[in-house]
Amino acid sequence: MSNIVDQITGHRRMRRNRKADWTRRLVQENRLTVDDLIWPVFIVPGTNVVEPVAAMPGVNRMSIDRLVEAAKEAADLGIPALATFPNIELSLRDETGSNCLAADNLINEATRALKRHVPAIGVITDVALDPFTSHGHDGILREGEIVNDETVEQAAKAAVIQADAGSDIIAPSEMMDGRIGVIRQALDHAGHQHVGIMSYATKFASAFYGPYREAIGTGGLLKGDKKTYYIDPANGTEAIRDAALDVEEGADMLMVKPGLPYLDICWRMKEAFDLPVFAYQVSGEYSQIKAAAMNGWIDGDRVMMETLLAFKRAGCDGIVTYFAVEVARALSKKG
Hints:
By secondary structure, the chain is an alpha/beta fold. It has an eight-stranded parallel beta barrel with strand order 1-4-5-8-9-10-11-12, surrounded by nine helices. Strands 6-7 form a two-stranded antiparallel sheet. It has one domain (30-334): TIM Barrel. It is built from twelve helices and twelve strands. The chain is globular. The model has no long low-confidence stretch (mean pLDDT 95).
């Protein structure tokens, strides 16, 4: 005998596989592990400095010595890599971001320290100029325009210097045309064929970056906006075309930034290209979750995990997230 539900469903009942914890675990399609995590960190000058970022509860700017301590914990938790971002003194910032070419600048000194003291963890560095410019843009500003070719030339030089310091992966995020190919040629010419390139292939002109700009000290410096070189949030096909050019130019990995609002782009990139795809769960995404959790409006831990799992479901091979250490600790307890 069958009832009306069996007649309608043809005896196909989706809840059979959901009836118990063990069956749910058995058929789970995607899993988040510590191997999926890249931890972005903010570096400041000085010694024994830990500065909370007000707009990002739980996130700190750290001097290199304290960063090394934090990196040791991250490595012990199994986090594969860090992505480093410097907050340098205003006196070192200028119109062209020239400090990015200093071999002993903050980001390169941090790389050397990390490779010396925590060799097991990967170091990913960015060549975008915004931490180094007095105007907060990712490139060189000439007569009101971010000039493409001169910026690319400087980014390529910075990439070689960062590789000399020990960077494992160069992650160019400034969205200039041709940057991946020029950086690849520069790295290879300098003998850094082993250094990878994780292209910020689709970086959108998003409103989700505000807390990050506070963290690296560019929020009050930015003149105008970045719409002439970041992608319009309305344009998915353009984003895939941009990524395709980076693939042709020699990118080893691809990045989507921001993350959660662009899960469709993550999926389309994974389907289109035979390369690892990563999402950057940016500062605005992180801060929203933290703020809502602090107000008791959501279960912060569950939302944190759910959003990260969403990236995996969308085809991402990994996620750059400020939650990385928090998640790694939770996963280690669960295991």
